Amino acid sequence: MHEIPETRASLVLRVQNPDDQQAWDEFVRLYQPVVYRVGRSRGLQEADANDLVQTVFVSIAGSIGKWSPRDSKVKFRHWLLRVAKNATINALSRRPADQAGAIDGDLLHEVEAGDRHSESLIELEYRRELFIRAKEMVRVDFSQDTWQAFELTAIQGLSKEQAAQELGKSIGAVYAARSRIIRRLSEAVAKLEGQFQ
Question: Which of 39, 81, 125, 188 could pair with 134 as two cysteines, CB 3.0-4.6 Å apart?
Answer without folding.
Answer: 188
